[in-house]
Amino acid sequence: MGMVHAWNGRKFQIMNSDNQTGQSAAVALEPLRREIDAIDEQLVNLLAERRQRVQKVIALKQAKNLPVYHPSREEDLISKRREQASLAGLDPDHVEELFRSVLRQSRVKQTAQIIRTGVRAGAKVLVVGGAGKMGGYFSRWFAQSGYQVRILEVDDWPNAAALCRDIDLAFISVPIPQTPAIIQRLAPFLPPQCVLADITSIKQAPVDAMLASHPGPVLGLHPLFGPMTSNMDKQIVMAVPGRDPAASQWLVDQFSSWGSIVEVLSAVEHDEIMSIVQALRHFATFAFGQFLYRRQINMARTLDFSSPIYRLELGMVGRFFAQDAPLYASIISATPERRAILKDFIASVADNRELLEEGNTEKFVHEFKSVAAWFGPFCDQSIRESTFLIEKLVERF
Amino acid sequence: MGMVHAWNGRKFQIMNSDNQTGQSAAVALEPLRREIDAIDEQLVNLLAERRQRVQKVIALKQAKNLPVYHPSREEDLISKRREQASLAGLDPDHVEELFRSVLRQSRVKQTAQIIRTGVRAGAKVLVVGGAGKMGGYFSRWFAQSGYQVRILEVDDWPNAAALCRDIDLAFISVPIPQTPAIIQRLAPFLPPQCVLADITSIKQAPVDAMLASHPGPVLGLHPLFGPMTSNMDKQIVMAVPGRDPAASQWLVDQFSSWGSIVEVLSAVEHDEIMSIVQALRHFATFAFGQFLYRRQINMARTLDFSSPIYRLELGMVGRFFAQDAPLYASIISATPERRAILKDFIASVADNRELLEEGNTEKFVHEFKSVAAWFGPFCDQSIRESTFLIEKLVERF
Description:
Two copies of one chain form a homodimer. With 397 residues, the first copy, chain A, is of the alpha/beta class. Chain A has three domains: 86 residues, Chorismate mutase (Chorismate Mutase Domain, subunit A); 142 residues, Rossmann fold (3-Layer(aba) Sandwich); 127 residues. Helix content of chain A is 60%, strand content 12%. The first copy, chain A, has 15 helices and nine strands. In chain A, the strands form two sheets. In chain A, strands 4-3-5-6-7-8-9 form a seven-stranded mixed sheet, with helices on both faces. A two-stranded antiparallel ribbon of chain A has the order 1-2. In chain A, a hairpin with a 2-residue loop joins β1 and β2. At the A-B interface, β1, α1, α2, α3 and β8 of A face β1, α1, α2, α3 and β8 of B.
């Protein structure tokens, strides 16, 4: 018994190196461990029973076309369990966390089964760029939900007229720089009542192009997730209304039915927010990873000696570089406004050169405190959320 | 029934706007929901029973001075539950996740109760800087573990001789720039056999100063966590042996007993790794938050439209600015080598100015791919870990 740690390469016994104490304790612990095992077995049995009931709920919801996510039912369920936990001397936060996890799991299962019945199953959907990563992702979701999916790729323009015949939706998923030109090229083939929608991560130029070239319903979309997202549960989709929202309501409903949360805003506000939420953030991550690469930092070694939060931060950088290079390059430099903000950012970073001179700590502390004061209450929330995640990370890895 | 979403400020019913279908479905769901509630109640009862058994295990371990964390027992328990889950048609990964959470919770409780019996309870510990955040944190942990804790603060130097009398450990927790000078000032008062240890986040200068001024046992420590960490479970502490490791083994054991993982390395390697793991990372975070502040970005609004990953990243920035400004200023600019690396980083970021010129996407893509190739297999791991965390974030918030 006793924990063994490496100390300068040699192995040392840490704590309780007395083997006899260890063995007698193990004997004494044995019956308790058997009892705990029995309880754990019952826990899993109950989870399996719960799963059966949830299956029945799914069948019912499916028959009645009810939504998967039912916020007030979930909150009610959680409060009951929190109360019971408190009375039983358990930590209610921890019990809540366990039940949130169970509920999410059942929501994911429900979504996976319910998607097969699309909001407008049978409708014809043309995915332009359907062989790309995002295009392929949504083609699969549409197809699984019972839509008739057609794909228009670079080589298919000679067949454009046939591909567009009688379609209910043209869904544009092509690289940002080509979006307006492809919309113009496609528009003449579209039935007038067909919904024209795009999923580009900027919205002003594409929505303008769609409104200018198609007289029918227009909807700008921007799903805030990538093709690596295994399901759309609670993922955000930004929607910019173009023309005739009632005619494209079914598409919004389809995203809701896939589990997404649809948020509506104007193209201008979308692009302004995204220049920060996407461009600045991605550029900062890019520059960080680029520097690690340029200096050929031994990452494995840094991870050996890293706190969970460093691991998490480096993980975000790794995640970024696992994405599609052209997509991210175009997100970062999509518009002149965006490029101007990033140049300002570069200048702002460089401003700190003098803070790094020896003995300038005071100025640095002053700047730090100004930013901290401005972040204000958001800091508390950040700490709560990130502490929760760090604990998850510690638990798992 | 039916989900309600905002569409341009007006409320629309999404899916199942037919109220009658909704009501009849609710009636049909009712008995199933009651059954699920009953199962959930039993789950919480079992968790409470489990907790009672764990209490008994704690009492036994405490009596026998056994370690809290028992990796092979945990892995064994997890495999049994995974197997049972698979047989019952449940997702074994999800069941593993639930049990890891339950195990962690019980480990935290165990640690909280066991710390009261210190590895060398009764020993006299002088915490220099014990009124500071980190100093106060460790003073509490030592005191709770039965040590006799004394504190030496700025005003206490006239009593230094009395405070140092018969101490077993002098534990230095003062700002980085003052560390060597304070060590020199303290050393003449120390009993020769007393352990001298510091927790500064650089190691070469402090360990050199300790070796030069104290003839007895010397140990450099660097806990990779801050005073906001509620417990030390699996948190990393770097240890740089100075002199006579056998004499300070009990201190290493004490950290293990508090739940920390102690990693041993040389002062040179420590400082090299930390210039990246701490200084570069903190500086990059600082520069990012500083820019948001300078541009007065409406953060609340960006959060309304943010993906879980953005929320997480911004949360890390918020967390950073909630920390102690002088501590982070000194971590960032602790040594000339560190400052040189950060200046290189600034230059590297600025190098990207030309990548942001219009039409330079190709060059950007090329650079992106070089970095991505170098990140290599680490990307996969990052995606697994961060996907797991994003799911947690979606679940909770």
